[in-house]
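User: My advisor, Dr. K., asked me to get a structural model of this assembly before our group meeting. I'm new to this, so sorry if the format is off. These are the inputs:
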Amino acid sequence: MLPAMAAGNDDAELMTRYAAGDVAAFAALYARHKGPLYRYFFRQCGNPDTADELFQDVWLRIIKARERYTPTARFTTYMYQIAHNCLVDHFRKAGRAFTNGSGEPTAAAIPEPVAEEIDPAFASARWSLVDWENDPADSAPGPEAASSGEQRAGRLRSALDTLPVEQREAFLLHEEAEMGLADIAEVTGANPETVKSRLRYAVKKLRTALGDLAPATARSTSRTPGGALS
Amino acid sequence: MSTGNTPRDDAEFEAFLGRESPLAADYAGLEKAGPPASLDEKILAVAKVAARPAPKPVPKTEAKPVVTPIAGKAVPTQPAQAAGAPAQGSGAERRKRPRPEATPADDHTQAVPARRPPWLLPAALAASVLVAVGVGLGVYLNAPSDSADATLDGSLFAKRARERSEESKAATAAVQDAEVIELELAPLPPPPVFQPEGPQVQDLDAAIALIRKELVLANQMAAAQADQALELQSLSRAPMPGQQSAAPAPTPATEVELASPASASVVQPRERRLTKILELYDGGNPDLAGDSLEIFLRDFEDDPISKRIVALTPE
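Assistant: The format is fine. Below is the predicted structure of the whole assembly, which you can bring to the meeting.
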C-alpha cells in the first residue's frame, strides 16, 4: 500500500515547485497520477474520447490554478475533486443524472456503454466489447478466454459497468486513487457512512458477478512508489 | 451494518477496505488504460508554457522615485537593483503577482517595468504648476523694473524665471535683427518719375497779362463787328425812295448773315474760359487760375494765345 501521507506531502511539494516554475516537478506529478486519473474517467464513461477530454480538462484546470494551490489538503484529494466536478458536469450535459439521492442505481444514472462510441482499435487494446454486451451472470468464457483469470477479468469489467455511477466512483476512487472512506467522502461531497454503504454494495455486486470463479492468487501488478499503477 | 449482509460479506468488505480482498487483486489485473502519448505531450507542453517565470515586479517599498520639482517634468528614478533582481517574498506573494509571458533567458535581460507610486502623478502636477507660476512671475516682474525682481533674489524659481525671460528676450531680439537685416538688404523700388502731362506755365503773371491783352483786343473787335452789323441792318430797314420795289429781296444767305451779327459779338468759349481765368486770378486764386490755364493750353493747343503763353516758358 502506498504511504498516503508521504505521497501526499510529496505531491504537494511537487505542485508547489511547479507553481514556482519547476516544470520537471509537474512532469513527475503528471507521470504519477495520469494512469489512475485516466482510468477513473475511462471506467466511468466507457468512451476514450470523452475520457481524453475530461482528463485533459482536469490537468488544464490544475495548471491554471497552480498559483492558487495551497498544500492544506492532499493533492490527490484536490485533483479528484476537480475530476469529480468535471464528471458531474459531463453527465449533466449528457442529460444523465449523476445520482438519485439514495445512491441506488437509476436507469439514467447508469452510463450504458455504446458499442458505436468505442474506437475499435482502442477497444481491442484496452477494452472488450464482448464483455459489455453480455450480462456478467450469463457471460460464458469464449475459446480465447480459457484461463480462469481472463474470465474473472471479463466478468469484473462487465460488472463494473453495471454498477451505479456513485458506487462505481467510490470503488474506483478506492482502487485507483487508493483513497480511504474519508477522502472519498471529501471528494464526492457525501457522508462517510454513505460512501461506506456504496462501497459495500459495489463489492457485493462485483463478488456476485465473479461467482465461483477462482480468485486471483495475488495482485498481479505492482504500484509505483508514487501511487500510479504501472 | 445493512440488513441482508452475512458475516462473510462483512469479512470480505473489511478485507476490501484493508486492500486484502481478492477483488482488488482482480481489478488490478485488468488492462491498464492510459492517456495517449499525444495527450501527454500536449498537457506537458501547456504546463511548460504556463510555468515560464514572469518578470518580477519591483516591490512598492523598494521603488522610491525622486521627483525634481524644478524641472518641467518629473522623472522617477528606478532603483538599480530593480532589473534582474531575484524575487523576494513568500511563495504566496509570488503567486499573487501577475506572470506575463517571458522566457527564462529574458528574465535576466529585460528591464522590469516598475509600478509607479500613486502619489507620483499629483506630485508631478504640483511641480508643474509651481514651475509655471514661477516662470509667470519672473516674466511679469522682470518687465517693469529690477526692484520687483530683487524681491525674488535667492529664489530658485525666480532665478529660473529670469533665465527663461532672458532666453526669450534674446530669441526675440535675434528674430528682430534677422528681420532688420532682411529689410536692409532688400532693394528699394526706384522713385517714381513725374512726367508733366502738358505745357507748364512758368510765368503766370505774364500769361495773365497776355490773356488780358488778348481779351481787350477781342472785345474791341467784337464791338466793331457789332457796330458794322447794326449799320447794315439800319440801312436795309430804311429803303431809299424809288428803289423800294427795285430792291432785291434778301436771299436766305443774306438773312443768315444779317441775322448773325450777334454771332461775332457772342463770347466764344475760348474767350469765356480766358475771362474765367482772369476772374480767378483777379479774385485771389492764382492756383486755380494756373490750373485752368493749364487745361486751356491743352484744349486750345493751336490757339495763338496758347502758343504765346507756352513761348513764355523756357524750353
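One thing worth pointing out at the meeting: Chain A touches chain B through 60 residues (CB under 8 Å).

User: Perfect, thanks a lot.
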